[in-house]
Specification:
alpha/beta; globular; eleven-stranded mixed sheet; binds hypoxanthine; 279 residues; 11 strands; Rossmann fold
């Protein structure tokens, strides 16, 4: 089943038929909110607002492990993540969609693994797979993230954006910063020199944790503002939320079409990531 994570300005998805809202407990604590199990054209999907309804959690205090573990408990094996980003690459304009294909991690304080060796928690999902085995055996795991995003999901997102005629970019390197403050102009200049195209505060560790559980993961980034120093204006959250509001209809159309078209079985190697990854 597909899981959808909504970012700033996306706290629900109209057009989906809500089947039920479920509270999920996890060995890692509380997820950001209740999960909304929904249906569209006969297909089920689960939605979770990353920051919680009412935007309760700042990026560095989101319980990413609980959020991703909750999806596993509900039977999710692929995640479509939606998030607001600042545009670093001069080709980007506010309102553009970026289907990121890689990331650089500048976060500082986040737990980014389920596999803690001797301190690993036992699996409580009842799913008999390599995740359960590695956790039970207290293994140390180093997953491959050479190309962290699911190629099959990205291709489908590209086809949808193309068909709808939206302005989008098929590639982009996402730089994850710690936040919650925005970046300095000097930091953005450095991130640009390092190859960053967009900047945001939430992709890491979300994508890493999903991959650690054998899930496919793709991201739709919405450029809500030009990053610090590229924009001549002072940056504000008002601008971020306003651009997200302007793009809400388009984002929802992409999500609904994605739910309808994504096959249960994807043709890629994402589900192989744990093979040979433990020491
Ligand atoms: N920086 C970091 N995160 C963001 C930005 C930004 O400029 N815009 C939206 N999320």
């Amino acid at each position: 089943m597909l899981g959808i994570i909504g970012g700033s300005g996306l706290y629900d998805i109209q057009g989906l038929k809500i089947v039920e809202e479920v509270e999920v407990s996890t060995p890692f604590g509380e997820p950001s909110d209740k999960y909304v199990i929904a249906e569209y054209k006969g297909k089920k999907a689960v939605f979770l607002p990353r920051h919680g309804k009412g935007h309760k959690y700042p990026p560095h205090l989101i319980n990413y492990r609980a959020n991703i573990w909750g999806f596993r408990k509900l039977g999710v094996n692929k995640i479509l993540s939606v998030s607001a980003v600042g545009g670093i690459n001069p080709l980007l304009k506010p309102g553009d969609f970026v289907l990121s294909d890689n990331f650089i991690d500048f976060t500082k304080s986040r737990v980014s693994t389920f596999y803690e060796g001797l301190n690993s928690k036992e699996d409580d999902t009842g799913i008999n797979d390599q995740v359960k085995e590695y956790l039970k055996d207290k293994r140390v795991v180093h997953i491959d993230v050479t190309n962290p995003f699911c190629p099959s999901m990205r291709k489908l997102l590209k086809d949808i954006c193309e068909e709808k005629g939206y302005r989008y970019h098929f590639k982009g390197c996402y730089v994850a910063t710690e936040g919650p403050r925005l970046e300095t102009a000097a930091e953005i200049k450095m991130l640009s020199l390092l190859g960053g195209d967009v900047v945001g505060m939430t992709l890491v560790p979300e994508i890493i944790l999903a991959r650690e559980l054998n899930m496919h993961f793709a991201s739709v980034n919405i450029v809500t503002n030009l990053a610090a120093g590229i924009s001549e204006e002072r940056l504000t959250s008002d601008e971020v939320i306003q651009t997200m509001k302007q793009k809400t209809e388009d984002i929802k159309k992409v999500i609904l079409e994605f739910i309808e078209k994504v096959p249960e079985k994807l043709n890629c190697s994402c589900e192989e990531v744990l093979k040979g990854a433990a020491i």
